[in-house]
Input
Amino acid sequence: MKTACWIRWVSLRGFRNYARADVALRDGLTVLVGANGQGKSNFLEAVYVVATGRSYRTVREVEVVACGEAVARVRAVVVRRGREEEQEVVIHRAEDAGTVQMRVGGVETPRSRVLGRVPVVVAAPWDLDVVRGAAVLRRRLLDAALAQMSPAYYFALHRYYRTLTQRNAALRRRAGAHLEPWEAQMIALGARVVVRRRAYVARLSMQAEGWFQRLGGTGALRVRYRPSWAGASEEDVALVARGELTRRRADELRRGVTLSGPQRDDVEMLLDDVPLRTVGSLGQWRLAMLAVRFAEREALGDELGVTPVLLLDDVLAELDEARQRRVLQLADTGQVLATTTALPAGAGGNGIHVLRVADGAVREDAWSHRSVTS
Output
């Protein structure tokens, strides 16, 4: 049985367009309503950053530091298994880069030990690029969830990429005689990554199909893992990996880069066994990605024993009002934070907590049908 895990209070200082904000939240569904450019997405980004130490909107965390500020700070009071604790992230500006510090209960804590304490899943407008874009986006879909599920996965993946960097450096030096030590580590670490990814995608696919139907989608949605190193067990994967590295070595030495391994994996989404990127409308793509995100939340919750916080960042726009209402109705367990410029008609009441966002300020407001942009 899952237990409660939710964020009761968030404090922002120097974060994006928030000079200073202190916001009380509730368990259940909260909708942040406001015109474009007022700070709705920035607020959800801050929640994600304090939970994971990373932004889902940029790979350079320094970009969240407000113009003219040296530091951005996000503090949160988290209710976790019936107890409150404080979690904080501080991003320091350092020239064009940044450094990130995380604290739990006032004690500096490495990111590896913070991930999963407040599990969080985010659906954002660029989820459509997961369907149609580069494979790296689909690998991130897997790795973001698996890193929260398992510190062991996080360490294996991190060490794999460090080893891959060393092997690529040796390839660029044409140092073929020095590849073996890096390859032995790559194979052992990569096999762990592949096996865990395979198991997760199988679970994700099964749950996403059900969510797609509940959200009003038509057809059978599946998620398929396409690994560079195939195999059902770590031993099988290691055997395939050794063969691939041997077979491709001459080409890799010529090109100076590793051509197989988890960094080349892909994930394919299928609708009625046809690649989703080749069929359907933007609305169908959005519905499919929402199903995947709901399935990700379910899988994380089953693994960790708590219901993850769900962030729905402006993902309702491509859906008709009936499906918008259905998404909000299905987001009925745990804490959900959603952003929109206007609530769909008939979505108010029923315990929905509405916050109005304007110019970097958040205030509680009564629900209204009227669009804030009208």
Residues 2 and 190 are 31 Å apart (CA to CA). Residues 367-374 have pLDDT under 50 and may be disordered. The chain is about 40% helix and 25% strand.
